[in-house]
Structures are given as structure tokens and as C-alpha cells.
Amino acid sequence: MKIGILEGNGIGPEIVAATKKVLEACDLGFEWVHVPIAQEAVELYGTEVPEQSLDLLRELKVAIKGPMSVEKMKGRILLTRKDGTSHIYPSNNNAIRQELNCFACPRPARGIPGISGRYENMDVVIIREISEGIYSAIEHRIQGDLASEAVKLITRAGAERICRWAFEYAIQNHRRKVTCSHKANAISLTDGLFLETFRRVAKDYPEIESEDLMVDATAYYLVKDPKRFDVIVTMNQYGDILSDLCAGLIGSLGLGAGANIGQECAIFEACHGSAPDIAGRGIANPTSLILSAVMLLRHIGRPDMADKVEQAVRAVLTEGRTITRDLGGTATTEEFTGAIIDKLRLS
Ligand code: ATP
Predict the structure, then answer these.
(1) Which conformational region is residue 289 in: left (phi greater than 0), alpha (psi within -120 to 50 degrees), or beta?
(2) Strand locations in the chain, DSSP E?
(3) CA 107 to CA 123: how far, in whole Å?
(4) How many angstroms separate the most distant Cα atoms in the chain?
(5) Beta carbons within 8 Å of 206's beta carbon, 6+ residues apart
(6) Is the CB of 66 under 6 A from ligand 1?
(7) How far is CA 167 from the centre of its chain?
(8) Which atom of ligand 1 is nearest to the CA of 287?
(9) Does residue 272's CB lie within 6 angstroms of at least one atom of ligand 1?
(10) pLDDT, tens only, 57-103
(11) Backbone angles phi, psi at 264, to 5 degrees
């Protein structure tokens, strides 16, 4: 099977290489297809997110992507399509998701014995909506530089699509409850529409418990009593923030797995950014992307192999002998990856 590979930048190439090695150890005959993006794509096709790469991803349907840095306060890209139409996106990451109609971003945070301290029993999946919300790149300056405003778009159709996806995810993954996280008291129209839609969709799933909670209260209870949560469905920005929080609670951003799912394509990527502060030093924790690859294995119908890889990763982490610096160890990315592969071969 062919799998698209987007290397990303910063620690991207290091954690992508580690993930490829683990997947190769599964002996499933994966064939890697390099997908040019960002600077490399500019040199080849004159644009950061070229149609050629998007078409390749549509054809492959499944890809692994390393993180790509976004320049702060400048992060906007103009994407021109083959038909001459164009669109402004806040980042390359966002452009890829939007152009491929990815809308659901599941981000599991499962505590690890020996690593996650009082959060070792945490088991929460954040379902982040990634096609709407405040990351619209529609921003305006008002009266010169005196003020500025940003557009937060929530549509009934977009809210319905993600809420339904969250309930279906709960059923398929034997989960008991879906919580909608919002701020409908302060942002009554957009968040209100999301909440209203959630409540309507929830009625179609009486077998799954449902509740809603303000996003600030969600953050509080995630820290205080994470066991009250199971699946959390939320808008783009809240999902972005809450999933980093969850990764931090279980031990490190380097543990935060994720995926961008749509009808056309599924791209598996970590929840963190490109970590420029540790890039090129061989010390990044690749668990985030390896666990994203576990989601890929489930997605392509290999839950058996997904379970094996996940168990190998968790066993190496729990043993604590070969763990990376972000978790208090001294292992390099390569040593940690080697320990997972050794464990996998023994299973
Ligand atoms: P970007 O500009 O791409 O968003 P950033 O540094 O602002 O990068 P992150 O990349 O998410 O944001 O990193 C936040 C912190 O978490 C950094 O200190 C980084 O080193 C650390 N971190 C992120 N991912 C990992 C990882 N896989 N392994 C170890 N540390 C990580």
C-alpha cells in the first residue's frame, strides 16, 4: 500500500523518519510516496501548497505528515488553484486540511503508567473541528492600526457534520459519553449555533450520554477531574488549545497524536508544532507521530497491528529505561525508536 509522506520542517523530518521505521517493522509492505510541500514545493512548482501535491494526496488517500512551522504574525498563504481561483489560508497546515476537505481532527490523550503521574488513568479524545472557526484568515484592521477584528465562521452544516462524526466515533470506539465544549454564554451566535446543533444531533444517539460545558470549565475539569470526560467535541481553536493541554497533562506534547480526516483523504499528524528549539538535535520524542500512525493502521483496517504498535510504545514508555528528554530521560529519538522496534519484534 502507498502512503504519502510530508516531511514538514523543524523536528518534522526526524519524527517522520522514526515513524516510517516503526511502520516498516510491521512488515505490511508500505510504499512511501514523497509529497513536496513548503520550500521544496516552491522550488519545484513555485508555490508552497501546489495542486500537484494536493492531487497526489487525493490519489493516495492516506498520508503521514510532519509538523510545519507557521511564521508568527505573518502566517498567511495565498493558494491559487488550477482553475485560477484562489484562497487565503492562515498556514500551510490549514491550507492542506481545507483544500482536501478534512474536517475532523481526533486527538486522543491516554495516560501512561510510570509517565503520566496522577493523569495515568486519563483517557480522553478531543474531536476538533478543523474546517471552520476562527482560523479563517479573514481578519481586518479597523481605523489604521487602532484595532483589528477576525471572523469566526460556524455553519449549521459544519457543526452538524462534526457533532455527528463525534457520536459515530464514540459508538465505533466503545465510548460512553460525548461532551460539547463551547462558550455560548459569551459568543452567543456562533458558539450558540454549535451548541444548538450538538443538542439536536445528540437526540439521535440516545445510547451515548451527552453533556455540554463551557470551554474554560472544560480546561478546569480536565486538570481537576479528567475521568469525567470521554469524548469532547469542540470548535477549531478550543480543540487546538485543549488538545495541547491534554498532552501536557499526560506528560508531554511529544505524546500528542492526531489525524485530519475527511471524505477525500486522511492525514495523520502530531498535535504539536515543529519545535524549532530542539530541531536537528536528534532528541525529539516521536511518540506523537508513531501513535498517529497507530491511528492510520486502524484507519486502513489493521487494528491488530495498531494494537501491537501501541502496546510496544506504551511498554517502552512505562519501563522508563529508554525515554526522551521531554519525559525526563536521556534517550535520543533513534534509541527510543529502536527500543519500540525491539519490543514490536518480541510481540
Ligand atoms: P511552531 O512554531 O511550529 O508552532 P512552537 O515551538 O511554537 O513551534 P511546538 O512545536 O508545539 O510549538 O512546541 C512547544 C514546546 O513543546 C517546545 O518547547 C517544543 O520543544 C516541545 N515539543 C513539541 N513537540 C515535541 C516533541 N515531539 N518532542 C519533544 N518536545 C516537543
Answers:
(1) alpha
(2) 2-6, 31-34, 62-65, 77-80, 86-89, 102-110, 123-129, 139-142, 147-150, 177-182, 209-214, 231-234, 259-262, 266-268
(3) 11
(4) 65
(5) none
(6) no
(7) 18
(8) 27
(9) yes
(10) 999 999 999 999 877 777 677 888 888 888 889 889 999 999 999 99
(11) -90, -30
| Residue with the three cell numbers 520524542 | 285
Q: How many residues are listed for the chain in this entry?
A: 347
Over residues 111-161, the pLDDT tens digits come to: 999 999 999 999 999 999 999 999 988 888 998 889 999 999 999 999 999
Contact 343, 317 (CB under 8 A): no
Q: Chain centroid to CA 198: how far?
A: 21
75 lines ligand 1 (CB under 6 A): no
Question: What's the chain's average pLDDT?
Answer: 96
pLDDT in tens, 161-181: 999 999 999 999 999 999 999
Q: For residue 244, which atom of ligand 1 is closest to its CA?
A: 11
User: Mutation test of ligand 1: which of 272, 285, 332, 335 has the most ligand atoms closer than 8 Å to its C-beta?
Assistant: 272
- CA 13 to ligand 1 centroid distance, Å: 14
